Amino acid sequence: MGEDHNLESFQEGRLLLIDKPEGWTSFDAVKKVRVTAKVKKVGHAGTLDPLATGLLLICTGKFTKRIQELTGLEKEYTGTICLGAITDSYDRETEIREPKDISGISESDIREGMKQLTGAIAQIPPVFSAVKVDGQRAYSKARKGEAVKIEPRQIIIEQFDLISYEAPIVRFRVRCSKGTYIRSLAHDLGNILGCGAYLDSLRRTAIGTYRVEDATDIVAWADGIRRLRNFGETEQMSGEEQAQRPV
């Protein structure tokens, strides 16, 4: 059957466009595909933080050989930044602190700050990140209260645009190279404006030419695969029963 062939093709190799929900890690999504499709070789092309939503490319079978290529593609995001405070994780994961007055900040100030963060820039990833420091993940050291020093990385911000500003929330769109931390971009914008800032929400809308509009919700995808598998098992049982009928 066509559906059975589709199920079997996960072993051979598939590229899945998944719309990751908030609260899921990228590994959670990979595990869901591995368990549901019953395939061993599974990986993703570009991590999304648990608080972020949007496009996650998941490869199975021989398509896992394309992960490095896909990870290198340009990314596109939309989201919101909250001005007037900071957090250690640069997003909502950790305690909000050091509130500051933002009444004097205008849209033109924000646009100018974004302009300064556009192009080839040096960016320091958050200490609450998966970057390895002395053989350990930075977030592991940070959560233990250990000092973490991360060297800056060269990245490219192709586009960093203001969509709207309703204090304290900045809505933005960004296109960037691989290795970019949007949390750091939010933090750096806050530094430029002198008021502090942290990432409030994030949605990945594209990876290269792949768009989130073409992606499938991971839970809906898993439910669909289970229905196909149950349908195939039912048909197989029906065929065996027919073969056992007396002539």
Tell me what you see in this structure.
With 247 residues, the protein is α+β, with helices and mostly antiparallel strands. It has two domains: 2-71 and 209-242, Alpha-Beta Plaits (2-Layer Sandwich), CATH 3.30.70; 75-207, 2-Layer Sandwich (Pseudouridine synthase), CATH 3.30.2350.10. It has helices at 2-12, 26-37, 67-71, 107-116, 138-143, 182-193, 218-243; strands spanning 13-20, 42-44, 53-61, 75-83, 119-123, 132-133, 136-137, 153-166, 169-176, 197-207, 210-211, 216-217. Strands 1, 2, 3, 4, 5, 8, 9, 10, 11 and 12 form a ten-stranded mixed beta sheet that branches. It has a two-stranded antiparallel sheet with strand order 6-7.
Task: List the SSEs and their pairings.
Blueprint: H1 2-12, E1 13-20, H2 26-37, E2 42-44, E3 53-61, H3 67-71, E4 75-83, H4 107-116, E5 119-123, E6 132-133, E7 136-137, H5 138-143, E8 153-166, E9 169-176, H6 182-193, E10 197-207, E11 210-211, E12 216-217, H7 218-243
Parallel strand pairs: 1-12, 3-10
Antiparallel strand pairs: 1-3, 2-3, 4-9, 4-10, 5-8, 6-7, 8-9, 10-11
Helix pairs in contact: 2-7
